[in-house]
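Good morning C.,

I know you're traveling, so I'll keep this short. The sequence:
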Amino acid sequence: MISQKLLQNISFVKLRFISRHLIVACLFCASTWSQLASEAPAAVPSPARKDPLGRSTPRGTVLGFLIAAGKGDNQVAAQYLNTRETLKGGAPLAGQLYVVLNRRLPARLNEISDRPEGDATSLLKPDLYLVGIINGAGLDVTLERVEREDSGHIWLFSRTTLEAIPAVYEETHQVSVEDIFPAALVDNYLVGIPAYEWLFVFVGLPLIYFLTGLLNRLLLPVVGWVLNRLRRRTDQRPRQVLPQPIRLLMMAASIRWLLSEVGLSLIARQFWSTMATLITICGCVWLLILINRTTEQYSRNRLQSRPSSGAASVQRLIRRSIDLVFVFVGFLVMLRHFGISPTAALAGLGVGGIAIALAAQKTLENVVGGVSLILDEAVRVGDVLKVGEVTGTVDDIGLRSIRIRTLDRTMLVIPNGQLANMNLEVISCRDKFWFHPTITLRYETRSSQIASMTDAVRSLLTTHPHIDRDSVRVRFFQLATFSLNIEVFAYVVALDWNQFLRIQEDLLHGIMAIAQQVGVQFAFPSQTTYLVAEPNKKDSPVESLQAASAAR
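The tokens, ready to paste straight into the viewer:
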């Protein structure tokens, strides 16, 4: 990294180079973050001497050379070359190297190592680092690590690369963008930035985006006509053919194409290449989010006929979770592009996730319980539910709680985590209703009357159109304390609870009419006491006991 002392010595701060130095600042920030995110060494090394020109790392050497040569200070730029020539003799070679790198080196400055030891995974020698390959010439631009008494271990452009630079320089005839634009745009500056660069940013990009919107409008009638022909409709017309994410991807592709056709400086190409990459990442994430939203709408339309608001809540939760995953993955890709290791971010996210999970344990429990209830479809909106001693109708199913409208017309809110561990009785889910009254007759009823009563009630049930005949059972089954009990057992086929109550009312009226016809009476809790006169003294004790009786 270029030190503060270097900035003070060679005075790089000029407004004319703000646009070109922006990418350099981004690369320096990325280098700092990557160093902070890297693993700590096992032992603390001794502090190394800092090079005033920032040549301690491969990235510092390349960027320092580009900035110095771009400013026109070739004598300073010559200090980044491993050559036997003096500073004055190496200045022309530095200028040729700058032209070659500036025109033909791939814009991958963010991938250059920022470690003092270089790239540990390189297949080259430990003291040799590959910066890139010159397009068309097959020249490997390499750095070699040397030791100087005043600066310690530093990275310089290798002698092998410098020997091939003059020949490659003669072959470099690419047209520069400054040769294309008029002199008025090249020589005039606004806030220290050439006018043609402002033209790229504030005119070129909006113009490309506007052209994609114009293309979208031109394609609307054509696509609508094709859809009408395929679906045999006359009113089918899409709202848009090229959504905004597709237009962003087209704009990024246009930038890539212009970079291959127009000769820009290396730092400018790095800047626009980074811009195209960021636009591509944003467009892809946006497109995936739109596809996810369309999928949710399609699923919601498929489930629209089912009365379950909880399913919509779960779909919304799943969609937002997937959207967050898309955004997070895009953020990691951006970090990776700038050379920042995402390991520290992932570790921090894991620790933060554990802390959030512990803090919101009850909330997560309710959410998980709600998702399980909705996915199992154990309860739906409109079901008559019995929870403990409470009976009511399910009014709404949320991710955190369920709302039940009780018979008293009050609203009962139960957390889903608690509801998932309770026994639920869904009354509205039964296919048949149980008709199970007990007919209690008085003890004065004769056996023939009981037989007539059971036969008549059985006939009433088997002939009723809403009674399941196979389930009918009428039996005299108990001599109770104060009554003779007849059990009535049958299942009623009804659509809802109100219809069952109407059918039950008719059956009870019929049973009462049969009791009146047979001449029996229903029993009620009673007690009979038998009084016996006091026995005579002449009576024996045995006779006295036989004369006494107890009542029930």
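Safe travels,
E.
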